[in-house]
């Protein structure tokens, strides 16, 4: 089958990501210089991303292998599949945001589009490492946990801020920690190439968190700080306690420009539901 023509506008590109079930279509970059001309007609945002057989979303999630288990190749493959899928969901979530809020400032839409492109690259990088382990994404389950947050985000009074709080300042902030935990675990397990990918993702995540903090503050005129803006917008049941892993990395948060008050609030946050959804699904 011939590949379809590249999308003409950013909205059409995002719609294609959500309506195409196959991985190649979801990971194909937008063409250079794509227009952000927005249609006057509202675009219906799909409730769920299309997924071909082998990529279907499921409601449950298994725990991630513990870092110490990554000396074994099957555990490394399970982690790489999970991380690749988290990146794929991130691609779909940024496509969702761009489609859902065409009225956002052009500068923010450019940031969201650039982040979407980073997430596509991250997915490809993890998939390459999975292939090096003779693994396939289709051999692993794909939790819909991150996508499920779009329901509360969509119902929020201030959807764009809820999105930035949930995705940028909860899941991506937590990933500042998880990427380093698993970088070190891959390294100890003898898989330096996967450790390098985790470091690359970590470095990009610093920028993603910084962008989310900058824009949530700009879009929240009544908030006195980044922390204030976060707490006004974060959709239940997410909270500060979900924005970290057990190994808390202060330096990454400082590099991302988070305020001292925000960093301390996350560091000291206690979850009332330590179990239930499980730590593993916090990793993006
Ligand atoms: Fe990513
Ligand atoms: Fe990210």
Could you describe the 3D structure shown?
The protein is 57% helix and 1% strand. It contains 10 helices and 2 strands. Helix 4 runs antiparallel to helix 7, helix 5 runs antiparallel to helix 6 and helix 6 (159-188) crosses helix 8 (226-233). The chain has a two-stranded parallel ribbon. Mean pLDDT is 92; it is low at 274-282. The chain has helices spanning 10-19, 23-27, 73-100, 106-132, 145-155, 159-188, 192-218, 226-233, 250-255, 260-268, and strands at residues 57-58, 142-143. The protein has one domain (72-282): Ferritin, CATH 1.20.1260. With 284 residues, the protein is mainly α. It binds fe (ii) ion (FE2) (2 copies). One fe (ii) ion binds next to helix 3 and helix 4.
Quick rundown:
The chain has 284 residues and is mainly α.
Index terms:
two-stranded parallel sheet; 57% helix; Ferritin; mainly alpha; 2 strands; disordered C terminus; 284 residues; binds fe (ii) ion
Give the strand line-up of the largest sheet.
1-2
Question: What ions, cofactors and ligands are bound?
Answer: fe (ii) ion
Low-confidence stretches: 274-282
Query: On the 0-100 scale, what is the average pLDDT?
Result: 92
Tally of domains: 1
Q: What is the overall shape?
A: globular
The radius of gyration is: 18 Å
Q: What is the CATH first-level class name?
A: Mainly Alpha
Q: Give the name of the CATH architecture.
A: Up-down Bundle
Helix/sheet category: mainly alpha
β-strand percent reads under 5%
Report the total helices: 10
Largest sheet: 2 strands, parallel
CATH topological fold name: Ferritin
First CA to last CA: what distance? 33 Å
Residues in helices, as a percent range = 55-70%
